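User: Show me an example of a complex going from sequences to structure tokens.

Assistant: Sure. Here are the input components:
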Amino acid sequence: MADGRLNAVEGLAPHANRLRTLLVRLVANRSIALGGGLVAIITLLAVFAPLVAPYDPLESNFRARLLPPSAEHWFGTDHFGRDVLSRVIYGGRLSLEIGFLVVLATGIFGTLIGGCAGYFRALDNPVMRLMDAWMAFPAILLAIAVSATLGASVTNVVIALSLATTPHTARIVRASVLVVREMEYVEAARALGARDMRILFVHVLLNSIAPLIVRLTYVFAIAILAEAVLSYIGVGPPPPAPSFGNIIANGRDFMVEAPWVTIFPGVAIFVVVLGLNLLGDGLRDVLDPRMRVER
Amino acid sequence: MLSFVLRRLLSSIPVLILVSLMTFALIWLVPGDPASVFLDASATPEQIENLRRQLGLDQPIWSQMLSWYERVLSGDLGQSILLRRSVADAILERLPITLSLAALALFFAVLFGILLGSLAAVNHQRWGDQSIMAIALLGLSIPDFWLGLVLIVVFAVQLGWLPSGGYVPITEDFVGWARSMALPAFTLTVTQIGFIARMTRSAMLDVLRQDYVRTADAKGLSHSFVVLRHALPNALVPILTVTGVIAGGLLGGAVVVEQVFFLPGLGRLIIGAILSRDFPVIQGGLLMLAVIYLVINLIVDLLYALIDPRVRYG
Amino acid sequence: MTGVPLSQKPPLLTVEALSTATGPARRRLTILEDVSFTVSPGEVIGIVGESGSGKSMLALTLMNLLPRSIVRTAGTVRLGETVLTNLSNKAWRDRRGRDMAMIFQEPMTSLNPVMRIGQQIEEVLVRRRRMTGREANREAVRLLERVEISSPAERLRAYPHELSGGMRQRVMIAIALAANARILIADEPTTALDVTIQAQILDLLRQLQADMGMALILITHDLGVVAEMAHRVMVLYAGRVAELAPVDSIFDDPRHPYTKALLASIPTIESRRERLTTIDGSVPTVGAMPPGCRFASRCPVARAVCKTLAPPVMPIAEDHGVACMEPFGYALPSSADLPGAA
């Protein structure tokens, strides 16, 4: 009884108030603070790479090959004598850029596909079967195949990774659209004669955005990891531009005498992905406590 | 139960058709002509035309598709352009390596994932819970290929305990096989265990709140018995679901890990084919992996029915 | 109900000054406060109160089944000579399913959905009463017969979702009987069931109680049920005992204004299932307990003193206690212990 009343009051609370409680909870969440902090720091480093990086990431210096970490080269140098720290910073810039574009593309296409499947009953079954089939291919292999087939370039890597992360995202959007679609206010809007597309976008999507935000945070993490794999295998963004993956790939052959070339970019990937995962976990806890821990 | 199995089998047919269709369509992704992409610029128009004929690209698309289905259904995946041998043979030769790697990793990830997740749930919001969840999160955030490289340096190069790569067939030498699989399987397990542990924890937390667990507690049964006999079976359904979901990640991970440890599995075959644009092998390999994924998920669904009587009769 | 309170015998269960609370140590929120009562062997005691009165919490406290967020802050529970509250969690757990058993409000969710009925009954017999599998199976059949389930041998192989709510509650009772307990705690055992099934289950409980001579703690919000079943009644209000008396005294001579209001709100026979909601105002919530008597804000006879002083349960007749100052002319007997305005 008391609960029912409480909920009713909460439901009537003005939007601004709800927004403020939401903000307070977001700020108070430890995972968000830690993950968001990590991601923010790394993003700043990436954006201001030209100012932050101590050296030119492409400038080789054959007299300074495979130097261990020192005061001059914090992360040491690679076999061309390039400063690993600078390369990691620029690599992060590229990896984050790719990750961001993948999030954007996956967000748009996942929402479109999942939204339509969830909202238009006739589309649901065929579209979702297609997504099932799509997901049957290991995502990373799909990305490798697409990227290799289209040819190595930043754009193609983004396309490949977006293709790999879209079906699961569409499935998540569809699931929440299905729930929202049956809610009273959507019925009400339909009764008032709003056109199908307007209902879809204004009501349904606005209200199923929480799981989407959480998913896209994880997509960012997945994209960073996958981009590194692509580069490592040699179908990532083309060299000499450093990315996390191709720094590691370059360092692999010198792993025994110069482990720092491999270790540091790996740690960098780990920190970025950890930050994003923490952020995703925190957002999930705050925005949608019922959501499961899959991603 | 039988009707459930039949229904589930029937429902996987359209997905299977779509999967094969998508593998077939992959070749159309290639900008320009696949035959000339495979051969380098020095190839004569005649060579290209030969290859086109060999790949069936000279036929109209519907007839290409028809003959593709005809062949695939009879188990013929075509001839590798590069290896000059049957794709099906090449795949079957490599498959055991990939499957055993994935199976090992799946086994350990499920075993320890359930164990860790349950421990976390039982110790909810205590330090045990928090440290287990931190470990799970770390595992999820480590790049698998990089972890493999680091493990090679530490355990193979520095300590010399295990081989840095290569494969010993289990039929030849079991210990050698175990040693060659130890690092790859560990790498793959570490990166997948977090999913299972996290899902187990949340499912167990959910189940431990249920009335029937309280009933079991009211019977005075020991706590461990209540957790293992009453709570865990009820948590298994969502755990299985996530196991099905990560099966794809696991196969993909196996492909990458094979690459790092020089295991001559299906993954190395496919990646080699991708890099050399050996389309029949790419298509056959991808189809094989997709079918494996679908079979795993079929098994998962059948296990649901085994665990939960409501699914069986529903 | 005709039975005379069996208070001459030494009590089976003695609860003294029991309190529970929730929340962090600095800001403890009291749920139960200073609850004392006894249960004699073979006695049926009805515990009545609105939702939020703490009656289910009381049952869980007696079984040591409280969720981790709620702790016992004071008081003792004694079973015969054993002080349960001094036992380790493990030792208290061992008492459950042997000396005490419990059935719950929701038969639909109280049985494990992935285990057969038989397994759920037999595990008590095998693991708690050391029977062999064959003995346990035979005993389980007998128990299902006991709770009047037809073709019991077949039912043992059924899963909970194949049974109706009434059947499931019968199975829950069979599980409780399997424990061979001296005390059965039934927490709103019929609330979730249809009216006709309610009567059947109550009949069954009464009959089993009489046949087996076990004590029954029957928790309900339904005074009609209490009138039919109980020897004595304890009325809870907002976590405190309001009145404790033999069933006849409660119905014929209620002394607490809350009890009186409850009785006045009993609906007619036809609509007995209605919740008791006809008293103005509502039970104060856990976080907002007023000082003094917790019923004061809703009480028709409250005076200024009631808002500051919380009276303990005071004897007004030999076996009749009441936590109200009105019957005493708004003056506390001088010997009474005063838990003052906190």
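The lines above are the inputs; the final block is the predicted structure for all three components together. The radius of gyration of chain C is 21 Å.
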